[in-house]
Design goal:
Elements (H helix, E strand, L loop, with lengths): L4 E4 L5 H12 L3 E6 L3 H10 L6 E4 L5 H15 L4 E4 L18 H30 L4 E6 L3 H4 L5 H21 L4 E8 L8 H4 L3 H6 L10 H11 L11 E4 L8
Parallel strand pairs: 1-2, 1-4, 2-3, 4-5, 5-6, 6-7
Helix pairs in contact: 1-9, 3-4, 4-6
Length: about 250
């Protein structure tokens, strides 16, 4: 399970940073993807244990940049064994795009931006990565959200993008299994990251933490641990699954 070539999108901070660190600590070589955080990505690569880690860049909303980035990662890592689709965007706590509080132009803008990155960007990354995984097998792990199940009334594009990602992951779990490629998904609730900091400030933060009976939100390392296991050889039979990681803040059957 060591020495694998791993591409983690959105890896310069938050969950992606913890995921990259978990794989590197396990002996893998990691391609740290970023869109506009070159300094943070470089600092992370320099701090990761082991050797052979690289920085790659792309705007996931640009299909050509996605393809070039995946090919670059595979070339510099000597192939590709694992893809972690972690990168995503979420509207600000104050803005969002509620139906009756958004202009039609704002509504369109939020939907395009969110779907281009969270769903189409992830889909394009998987298409490109599958070409490198086809002859050697491997793992794809997608980072979704509990918002795909419970709904996001002020951020409907985000919830819809993650629901689409769940369905996409399950479709590809069936399509790619004959090639030895397992596809699984984790669906976190709130996690302490740069993306959620503004949401976790008091007084709203207290209400968010109270959603879980543990009275807290997740730590990035907790999500990374699940991602790391789903990418392991032992987790092949978990292909197609969606793992809820929300501290019992939202339960479904």
């Amino acid at each position: 399970m060591t020495g694998r070539a791993v591409l983690v999108t959105g890896a310069s901070r938050g969950i992606g940073r913890a995921v990259a660190t978990a794989f590197a600590a396990g002996g893998d070589r990691v391609a740290v993807h970023h869109r506009d955080s070159a300094a943070l990505a470089g600092q992370l690569v320099a701090a990761l244990p082991g050797d052979g880690h690289v920085v790659v860049r792309a705007d996931l909303a640009d299909p050509d940049e996605v393809r070039a980035m995946v090919d670059d990662a595979a070339d510099r890592l000597g192939g590709l064994d694992v893809l972690v689709n972690n990168a995503g965007v979420f509207g600000s706590a104050d803005a969002g795009h509620p139906v009756f509080e958004s202009s039609y132009e704002q509504w369109q803008q939020q939907w395009r931006r969110t779907l281009d990155v969270n769903l189409l960007g992830a889909a394009n990354t998987m298409w490109c990565a599958a070409r490198h995984l086809r002859d050697r097998g491997g793992r794809i792990v997608n980072v979704s959200s509990r918002g795909a199940f419970r709904g996001e009334p002020t951020q409907p594009a985000y919830g819809a993008s993650k629901a689409g990602l769940n369905a996409l992951g399950q479709s590809l779990a069936v399509a790619l299994a004959p090639y030895g490629i397992a596809v699984a998904t984790v669906a976190p609730g709130f996690v302490e990251t740069d993306m959620t900091n503004e949401h976790l400030r008091a007084p709203r933060g207290d209400a968010i933490r109270a959603q879980s009976p543990f009275n807290r939100v997740a730590r990035p390392a907790e999500i990374a641990a699940a991602v790391h296991w789903l990418a392991s050889p032992e987790a092949e039979w978990a292909s197609g699954t969606i793992v809820d990681l929300n501290g019992a803040s939202y339960l479904r059957t």
